Automatic annotation (TrEMBL), chain A:
It comes from Edaphochlamys debaryana. This is Complex 1 LYR protein domain-containing protein. Residues 6-62 form the Complex 1 LYR protein domain. GO terms for biological process: iron-sulfur cluster assembly. Pfam families: Complex1_LYR. InterPro entries: Complex1_LYR_dom, Complex1_LYR_LYRM4.
Automatic annotation (TrEMBL), chain B:
GO terms for molecular function: cysteine desulfurase activity; iron-sulfur cluster binding; metal ion binding; pyridoxal phosphate binding. Its cofactor is pyridoxal 5'-phosphate. It is an enzyme of class 2 (transferase). Keywords: Iron, Iron-sulfur, Metal-binding, Pyridoxal phosphate, Transferase. One of its GO terms (biological process) is [2Fe-2S] cluster assembly. Transmembrane segments: none annotated. This is cysteine desulfurase. One of its GO terms (cellular component) is mitochondrion. The keyword Iron applies. PANTHER family: CYSTEINE DESULFURASE (PTHR11601:SF34), CYSTEINE DESULFURYLASE FAMILY MEMBER (PTHR11601). It comes from Edaphochlamys debaryana.
Length: 98, 438
């Protein structure tokens, strides 16, 4: 099905762009939200609902790309302490992983 | 996220002030930081959602028109954007767009609602009811009325922060104009029984205002279902811009009020001044996103709160929760804990790598503990060691884990140095000791 293929392509593109996002918290958020949305939409079969979900997916991918540029230009030059501290080990590793 | 937290990406060398370690130090207010602290202070303010920034940018570049200009495209496109934003805010709270007035934030909305309604009805009604745990801007607006001859009742709350309905009912008088009770408290996250208050006020013919700054967009809220007559909200608490908010003013039954601003008569004459299109568009986008993401956001903060609370309390004794333990009565993105047998200021200083708020105003000269915690009857010592952890849409598991580690290790370190803690460990009941001096 063409729609299912496009959905998968969009999902992978969102994860990829999300990983490149210059801000730590947003990198995490984009992964989490993309997975949630993808999972939620998996059961949608109504063609017009599928089309509007795909439309939103395309828009969000473009938005992530644009905002990635904005953050790259205007974000901080300093890193979050979590990203700095290579020694840091969470108590229990975070469940989800890309 | 393993990929981001446990094994961070290589740190880019900052292009200014770089030092040997590959990272540079940040110096501010006499404190040196290795990096940017983790942000766990979402009740103070939230970062803007990129979807909000994206919606605002066109109105910060070429679409700069005055939304009140009637004669050209610049005005028309700005007006259209403002009305679109108004509709999005209305939709989030179940209102009609005509009932939404743009303001500069929840402070202005609260001032307008309380002073505006009280002044309009001053000939017949001279009494206002609020609670002792409201935000300063509500308490100060009530103080302002008091200085001008109104009667104000500041209701006490229960030890968990909840308002007792029978206490409220007993306080309502024939000359009560307004009841103002916040929906979610900014310090302890307690959720007040808004629908019950609304029903009671409606039955008594008293207007009901609620400060929804910490509730709108985070918990489901409907002005009709809860019989709310006036509701304040703020952009920067819901991933929108600072300096913008809104006031919902019911049209049926009609709430009348006197405006605080005189001028061009914008916003149905209730708030003169050019409406700031980019900010208002941002607020609208924030509300639209909040409506769409509410369930996901709530599930996320619920999970994080559980992780943080159990992470700390499973490793430390003597931790007190400020606010209700029942999560049906507390917004989970707000966890306020007090740590016994540590010194408040030392604790906050030790936690400088996480941005949190403290119940003790230890940066000010006064060293006054929070009036909210005092109203709950929290002991002064414990009020001074309270920490508010604020989590939200962009908080990560790894940040929570780091906050747990930092809190546990610093509390343990401080307690090791505390003679009181040593006595507690030896089984001495501290409360039974007769102190020579207080
Ligand atoms: C409950 C509550 N009311 C009002 C305000 C004030 O909001 P604003 O900063 O938009 O004026 C805040 C935030 O500080 C708040 O938490």
């Amino acid at each position: 099905m063409a729609a299912a293929n496009e959905a998968r392509t969009l999902f992978r593109a969102l994860l990829r762009e999300g990983k490149r996002f210059p801000n730590y918290n947003l990198r995490d958020f984009i992964q989490r939200r993309a997975k949630e949305s993808f999972r939620e939409s998996a059961g949608v079969t109504d063609p017009s609902a599928v089309q509007s979900l795909l439309k939103r997916g395309r828009e969000e991918l473009e938005l992530v790309k644009r905002q990635s540029t904005v953050y790259g230009l205007y974000g901080r030059k300093f890193k979050n302490v979590l990203e700095l501290d290579l020694k840091f080990k969470p108590n229990t590793p975070a469940a989800s992983s890309a | 996220m393993r990929g981001f937290a446990a094994a961070p990406q290589p740190v880019e060398d900052a292009d200014h002030g770089g030092s040997s370690g590959g990272s540079s130090m940040i110096e501010k207010k006499g404190i040196t930081l290795r990096g940017v602290p983790l942000y766990l202070d979402m009740q103070a303010t939230t970062p803007m959602d990129p979807r909000v920034i994206d919606a605002m940018l066109p109105f910060m570049t070429e679409q700069f028109g005055n939304p009140h200009s009637r004669t050209h495209l610049y005005g028309w496109e700005s007006e259209e954007a403002v009305e679109d934003a108004r509709a999005k805010i209305a939709r989030l709270i179940g209102a009609d767009p005509k009932e939404i007035i743009f303001t500069s934030g929840a402070t202005e909305s609260n001032n307008t609602a309380i002073k505006g309604v009280a002044m309009y009805y001053k000939d017949k009604k001279r009494h206002v009811i609020t609670t002792q745990t409201e935000h300063k801007c509500v308490l100060d607006s009530c103080r302002w009325l008091q200085q001008r001859g109104w009667d104000v009742t500041y209701l006490p709350v229960r030890p968990d922060g909840m308002l007792d309905m029978s206490v409220l009912e007993a306080a309502i008088r024939p000359d009560t104009a307004l009841v103002s009770v916040m929906a979610v408290n900014n310090e302890i996250g307690v959720v007040q029984p808004i629908s019950e208050i609304g029903a009671l006020c409606r039955s008594k013919g008293v207007f009901f205002h609620t400060d929804g700054a910490q509730a709108v967009g985070k918990l489901p809220l409907d002005v009709n279902a809860s019989k709310i007559d006036l509701l304040s909200l703020s952009g920067h608490k819901i991933y929108g811009p600072k300096g913008v908010g809104a006031l919902y003013v019911r049209r049926r039954p009609r709430v009348r009020m006197e405006p605080l601003m005189s001028g061009g008569g914008q916003e149905r004459g209730l708030r003169s001044g050019t409406v700031p299109t980019p900010l208002v568009v941002g607020l609208g986008a924030a509300c639209e996103v909040a409506a769409r993401d509410m369930q996901s956001d709530l599930a996320h903060v619920r999970r994080l709160e559980e992780r943080l609370r159990t992470g700390i309390t499973s490793q430390l004794q003597g931790v007190m929760l400020n606010g209700p333990s029942d999560l049906a009565l507390r917004y989970p993105g707000n966890l306020n804990l007090s740590f016994a047998y540590v010194e408040g200021e030392s604790l906050i200083m030790g936690l400088k790598e996480i941005a949190v708020s403290s119940g003790s105003a230890c940066t000010s000269a006064s060293l006054e503990p929070s009036y909210v915690l005092r109203a709950l009857g929290v002991e002064e010592e414990l009020a001074h060691t309270s920490i508010r952890y604020g989590m939200g849409r962009f908080t990560t598991d790894a940040e929570v884990d780091r906050a747990i580690d930092m809190t546990v290790s610093h509390v343990n370190k401080l307690r090791e140095m505390s003679p009181l803690w040593e006595m507690v460990q030896e089984g001495v009941d501290i409360k039974s000791i007769q102190w020579a001096q207080h």
